[in-house]
Amino acid sequence: MAVSDLIDDRLDGDETPALRFVLNGVEHTETVPARMSLWELLHDRLTLQGTKLACSRGVCGSCSVLIDGVPQASCSTFAFSIDGRHVDTIEGIAAAAHPLCEAFAARSAFQCGYCTSGMIVIAKALLDREPHPTRQTVIEWLSSNVCRCTGYAMIIEAVLAAAERGADG
Amino acid sequence: MASAFDERVRRRDAEAKTTGGATYGADLAVAGMLHAKVLRSPHPHAAIVSIDTAAAAAVPGVRAVLTAADLPSGITPYYGYIIKDQPIVAIDTVRFAGDVVAAVAADSEAAAAEALERIHVVYRVLPAVTTIDAALADGAPELFPEAPPGAVPRYGAGARGALRPRSNVSYEFAYQTGDPAAFDRCDHVFEDEFRFSRMQHFHLEPYVGIASATRKQIEVWTSTQNPFPLRRELARMFRLPENRVRVNVPLVGGSFGAKSNCKTEPVAIVLSQMTGRPVRWCMTFEESFFTNSQHAALLRLRTGVMRDGRLVARQSEIFLDAGAYSGASPLVAEKCGYRIPGPYRYDFIDTRCSCVMTNTTPAGAFRGFGGAQATWASESQIDMIARRLGITPYAMRALNLLHFGDPFVPGETAIDSDLHVGLDLVIDELGAIERTPNRGVGFAIGLKDGGGINKAAQARVKITTGGEVTIDCATVEAGQGARSSLCQIAAEVLSTPVDRVIISPIDTDQSPYDHGTNASSATVVMGRAVLAAAERVRDEVLRFTATALSCDPSELRLENWHAVRGEESHSIAELVLREFGNIGFQFAADGFQKAPLDERAPLDSPCVFWEIGWAAVAVAVDPGTGKVTIEKLVVSGDAGKAINPLVCRGQDEGAAMMGVAQALFEQMVFDDGILMNGDPLVYRVPLAEDVPVSFVSILQEQGRGPGPFGAKGFAEGGLLPIAAAVANAVDDAVGVRITELPISPQRVHRALFLQKSPTVGVTA
Amino acid sequence: MKRTDGGLISTSFRTIGDVAVIRPRSLDDAVAALMQHQVPPAILAGGTDMVARFNEGFNPRRVLALADVGELSAIEDDGEVLRIGALVTHARGSQSDTVRRAVPSFASAWARIANVRVRFTATIGGNVMARRTRYEMPVLLAALGAQIRVRDGNASRLWNVQSYLQREGAPRELLTHVEIPLADLCAFDYERGMRPIITQALAVRRSGKGLQLRVALGTEAMAPYVLEGTCDDLTGDIEALAARLFEGLPSGVCDHLTSNAYLRDVGRTLLGRQLTRLARGGL
């Protein structure tokens, strides 16, 4: 195989071929420049503004989304990498009325709200894997994300409450 | 009907923020907008010899390039609260590494960045002064050879301010009260020095603003805490009438004092004027470290006491590291100096607090506003003195704490919380610890005058035919839940469900006037304006209803948009439609609140209330590494009346964790003016795993606040006492006194090492 | 931030120019792509570090996306060497049965680095290639005496991890595997309670009738420093043993936040605790 076969001519230049992906349960086709980040695709191009850009370094987790159920910082992800995959954002999680959204709202587990989408995403990723996590496990997972406002205790409690409620169905 | 203050009442922004539906400055777009980026100085101090922008202007997609030479004539290109020393872009001199030298507006951020890369700047590096000590040293270069314009605020009894009292000091606040001879009759006089570290606000939403401007008018959409002060400053700079400057503010993604007055706006405005297009400048997160920070400080306290522990006299000399531009520093100096006595009785107080200019990131308003620095030093020294006298830290405080109703100082609002009650609460909750080696407890009380000085707030409350309520006010929602609390206040007055009340968006053309969302003032100051407006509109509704029912208003009571008279309940909606027909009517009334001026008050107006933070902490010290682990932290504040208890809890805990960070590890690290850790991976802020294993916040409602229903402000108190409480606990645990923040493992380890060496003093 | 002729610019993912993406399906194809262009493409594994490079001004024209190269995702234990493909994520590697059987305490240490979210995406190869002093994998690997396998064109080379970290990578080279020698390895411990000031990894191997100790000391701003020593067993004076090893720490080893005296003292203390833990565990 010649190297030139590897370089997909369609990829050279401005636009990649159409990405096909499932976004919040709905199939999408988008043609995006290869240089675009997933965050920019979601927030700017698709106007799903619930995913927030904060540190731009993949550290704070505010921009987290689920890709095939795996939490990932969209600010550190190329848009082209979601081809053929399932993406879930806060909007989809909320539209499905996940107990986490209700728990955070009812318990005021937020203040400025800028980290909240990312917190709910990482918490959902946890509850998808461990429906009844220990407090220690919740803390370990939430330590993937930064919150400057709350001091975390109320967020931890909201996640545990959502887990409990999820158990009740 | 359930009370509007029921704990189950949700914040008005709960649904939006938990479903991805909240819109912040960073989410906004204006049709046709261009994107700005800036070029920043790499040198802490340099003269700009030349700037060549020709190649930059030629980059495709670039619409304007801005340097000092391009600033329009006929504007005043400097800003600052008290001293106007910060230019829109650097003019002749760059004063810190990160200072803005040039700006570009282009079709995309990528094009703007490409253009910036093609700007050539010739700098002549100048000697930099990058610490307080260096700036004050003999022979240090004067950073501002020419005095920038500034004005000293008006003060009352005992207080004064001065511009440029000495080289590299832009402002000094001084306060004195009592008899200077008091020192002579003291049994002991203790002198101690403390150093306070500099943190970064680390608001997750970066600085962002969009400007649409011509030479005749300006409109901005911006992430700011202070819409009207910003409007005034922009009007002054761009020489426009205030009513030709319009400031819109959406939800703000965290601020903690950072987003006060000019940040992205002046650059965006000039670029918009140059291009005829709206211009958005969204800084990256890293650029926050080049924009604003907390004040590091050197505090020297000289405190005279009697042998029984009674405090007699305190003389303080405080130096704040104001960074390269003064910003809010004179006001922080004022408050730091004013608060240094803490919650204690003195016969003589003599304080000087200076803003020292250095070639580092400008320092500005930061949660605590000088109170954190003051509490660190004062509450540490109280413990140190107690130990030297052989009395317990508790006994020392009990002896000297101001009582409810005592004046803080002559002419000032009396203490409006029971300080003893709070102290006992946190100590009792902390409980007894297991007295194994290297474990200890400490506590501290932080105090700040809250509600702002002489702040004016206006509000309007409107009610539709159907009883839906809209509040117009310019209080910014930056996370503290203020807008929700104001809705609850109005709902309570109007006896209507909280979810029928909204607050309209902030737009200085429409919103009533306000001095800014700061100083923990919203619930009390704007709250009283909202309360007054709600009461007035309620009374108007009842007068209307009384007329319609041919009775006296005093016979009626408002309940869920019905007029209740004895056993009868009348639908106001029906009465309105009957009276007005057509589309009905909308009731409206205004409210206003401002504390009075009083020249007897040192700061020219007595404070609105006292915000107090109590903390008790149990620590374990690992002597092998010096690491301090907080095993239990108890914090408490007095909300007077908690409008929203969950909001209060969140504020207290969030503030406390900021205090924990300051106490143990968080700081901006400079090396000769170069920031070493201004990067999200390296700059350590607290994570969930840093929360103390046992962390309790106690919400007190002593009920004696001046705000609606007895409320007090509740936003900063939790931060104030943490660092001193931890230092006091470390002293209790291992007998070393750390007087410099953070109380890092390296510092504790070194102090323990020195403690073992008999020839060296124990203070580290 | 990016330093240019005029000063500092805050670049980001939003300021990079157009890129072409190359998606090889085999290691040979990846290597060929690296050889082909005048400016070699930027290597993309999990991408968690590349965003930082964008913030530092990196602006590649081509990106070599390795996600489909199966050979780089393999984990193999041939009894002598645990060979981990560069694309193995921290999550997958730390939970791998092969890794857990080979060096269980390395697996559990691996499961604690960075954070939960990052571990799903970031790779062992990317972590090491980034050469960032804040990343933890180099500390673990330095203690284990790991070797880094690198392809440069047709040549394949092994570097010991410290040499690899100290040199700037050649522009076309590709880190393909991390190889951990298993011979005589009997214990491993990773202490990260003092992070980010210090993290310390300890590997113990049988050596003749005694034990060989290898300690890697990592700090915030310093690449891992390795100390070695031998002892008969861990029944003796552990503190003296730790002190003996740390006598070998040169006086110049420190970073801008942490003095040599502190590193020496605390490293020694931590080593003592690590050895005590291992002794209690039956070593």
Give a structural overview.
The complex is a heterotrimer of chains A (169), B (764) and C (283). By secondary structure, chain A is an alpha+beta fold. Chain A has two domains: 14-92, Ubiquitin-like (UB roll) (Roll), CATH 3.10.20.30; 97-168, [2Fe-2S]-binding domain (DNA polymerase, domain 1), CATH 1.10.150.120. Chain A contains seven helices and five strands, in the order αββαβββααααα. Chain A has helices at 3-6, 38-45, 90-95, 99-106, 116-129, 135-142, 153-168; strands at residues 19-23, 26-30, 64-67, 70-73, 86-88. Chain A has a five-stranded mixed β-sheet with strand order 2-1-5-3-4. The longest helix of chain A is centred in the C-terminal third of the chain and has 16 residues, at 153-168. Mean pLDDT of chain A is 92; it is low at 1-14. Chain B is an alpha+beta fold and 764 residues long. Chain B contains 17 helices and 32 strands. In chain B, helix 8 (329-339) packs parallel to helix 9, helix 9 packs across helix 10 (393-400) and helix 15 (645-664) packs across helix 16 (722-734). The longest helix of chain B is centred in the C-terminal third of the chain and has 28 residues, at 522-549. Chain C has three domains: 2-65, Uridine Diphospho-n-acetylenolpyruvylglucosamine Reductase, domain 2 (2-Layer Sandwich), CATH 3.30.43.10; 70-181, Uridine Diphospho-n-acetylenolpyruvylglucosamine Reductase, domain 3 (2-Layer Sandwich); 185-280, Enolase-like, domain 1 (2-Layer Sandwich), CATH 3.30.390. Chain C is 32% helix and 27% strand. Chain C has eleven helices and 14 strands. The mean pLDDT of chain C is 96. Chains in contact: A-B, A-C, B-C. At the A-B interface, helix 3, helix 4, helix 5, helix 6 and helix 7 of A face helix 1 and helix 15 of B. Strand 1 of chain B pairs antiparallel with strand 2 (8-9) of chain C.
